[in-house]
Amino acid sequence: MKEEIRDTIMPTVDENLSYIKEELFKDASDMVFREFYIASWKAVLIYIDGMADKILLDDYVMETLIFKGNLMSDVNEIKDRLLTVSDMKEMKKLSEGIDAVLSGETMLLIDGLDGVYIIATRLWPVRGVSEPSGETVIRGGRDGFTETMRFNTALVRRRIRDTRLKIKPKSLGARSKTDVAILYIDDIVNEDALDKLMSRIEDIKIDAILDSGYVEQLIEDNQWSPFPQIQSTERPDVVAAALYEGRIAVLVDNSPFAIIVPAVMPNLFQSPDDYYQKWINASWMRLIRLVAIIGSLILPALYVAVTSFHTAIIPTKLAYSIAASREGVPFPAFVETLIMELSMAFLIEAVIRLPKAIGSTIGIVGGLIIGQAAVSAGIVSPIMIIIISITSISNFIIGNYELSSAFRLARFMLIIFSAVIGLYGIMLGLILLLIHLVRLKSFGIPYLSPIISPDIHDFKDLFIRIPLRNMKKRPEYMKTKDKIRQK
Description:
By secondary structure, this protein is of the alpha+beta class.
């Protein structure tokens, strides 16, 4: 059980300091307690070494307080007439002050003061803004989120210079007290989705939030579905575009990934530079992605069904070619496909976990060597290698990793169904998959929107993106307040 920190601030520094040292931060070697005097009043600065700006404390706090403290006749005048720092506030509860110290701020306790002063001194080691490695684009911004939440809100604010952009702070995790920011545009946002999000975040009761993935799993609609119902991104321009559509973003401190709600499936296979280039090129690339999704989903299952049950439906020359390539293969088509699919899954996982310096090399060499050796040994046929290669490339075209993983699981399901009853199994699997997707919702929005949307305007930005000057309305399925984005 977590120990509760008391709220009461004692009248003397020694009483407060004894409690803080002995009860709260005993054996915490990184805590700094700097005791000094402001005229006749004893004071102490409390901060965590490595998380606070010592130069600011030395030059603008301690120097001023020590050398000019004798000019003050009342302890309550120190804040307004002596402290030369721009960002500070007074708190009346000791527990709030301790929470601020744990976040990198500095607490100032003074004899006779019925509160504590919190001085903004956060200065921990940070990673600079760099290009996101997982969402590369041909045209568009090269800046990405970092692990520092305040940097991330600034990147979004830079793109939305609007007073109606709201950034609501939250603190999640009974022990970690992780800072969380909820971003939305007040006169556009879908209020129903916002209410659902706020309610679910309030219901989170957990010791620690270490990444935005924790929040994503705790607030999603259906935890049993492999399909992501919340969009994650490292790109501030993607977050800004989502906010302009009436959606909501959640930024979590210590995580370079923002999460966006509601999320629908078409959002997950679109790319940011779809909107940065001509509509014809963007539409062509979207159609390529759609074909890739369909191909990666059904191609291996189709091979198993055709070679095992329905050889009569393929041309005679192709049938002879497939039969010749499979001559000497000791396994049925289902086992052959399963072996190669699992081998590819192992290889992808290994490449992801290996250091970048050798990961790409191992992926290329491993794929070539394993494929060639498997064919030479007669374990799999050459056409199976071609099918798995096309399937894997098609799966990589899907920009969202979580969505591609969900389709990979669905592909295994279709392979098993096709091995049992052939093409009928594929159709049955696709029907079950479609039923699941139709039933899914993300914060009240159907997951297949705008495919199932009754409004024809929503189809202007689906599989084909019409010219930008004709996209005058925001998506109707989002139920935004302000529906017009271009006059």
